[in-house]
Amino acid sequence: MRQIFLAIALIAAPVAAFTGFEFYTSTAPAKAAGLGNLSSFKTIIADVQTLTSKGDLAGAAKRITDYETAWDQAETAIRPLNQNDWNNIDAASDAALKALRQSSPSAEKANKTLAALTAVLNNPAQPAQ
C-alpha cells in the first residue's frame, strides 16, 4: 500500500508542477507582439541618411518616397501586429517625410528626423524623441 502512495506522489508532483506552470503562463498578460522583420525599411532609411549626409537632399527626398511606398504597402500586414509600435514608427516616418519635402529642406533637420526614425525602427516601443 505504501508503494502505491509513493508511486502516486511521484507521478502527481511533476504533473501538478507542470499544470501550475501552464496555468500561470496562460493567465499572464500576453506580451506585445513585434512587428516582424523591419530590415528592408531600415535599409532604405540608411540609404536616405547617406544621401542626406552627402548633401543630396533631392536624392534623399526621392529615396524616402520608396520608403513611404513600402511602408504604406506593408501597413495592412504590420499594423495589426502591434498598433502602438506601428503608430510610433508612422509618426517618426511622417516627421522625416515632412523634413525632406519642405520647399527648402534643411540637411540638419532631415538628419535629426532620420536618426529619430532609425531609433524607432530599432526599438518601435519607444516613441520618437
Question: Could you describe the 3D structure shown?
Answer:
- By secondary structure, the chain is an all-alpha fold.
- The protein folds into 2 domains: 1-30; 39-122, no CATH class.
- It has 5 helices and no strands.
- It has helices spanning 2-27, 39-53, 57-78, 83-100, 107-122.
- The protein is rod-shaped and about 90 Å long.
Strand content: under 5%
Number of DSSP strand runs: 0
Averaged pLDDT: 84
The low-confidence runs, each spanning 5 or more residues with pLDDT under 50, are 26-32
Short description:
The chain is mainly α and 129 residues long. The chain is 75% helix and 0% strand. Helix 2 runs antiparallel to helix 3 (57-78), helix 3 packs antiparallel against helix 4 (83-100) and helix 4 (83-100) packs antiparallel against helix 5 (107-122).
Structural features:
single chain, 129 residues, mainly alpha, 5 helices
Question: Which secondary structure elements does this structure contain, and how are they paired or packed?
Answer:
Blueprint: H1 2-27, H2 39-53, H3 57-78, H4 83-100, H5 107-122
Helix pairs in contact: 2-3, 2-5, 3-4, 4-5
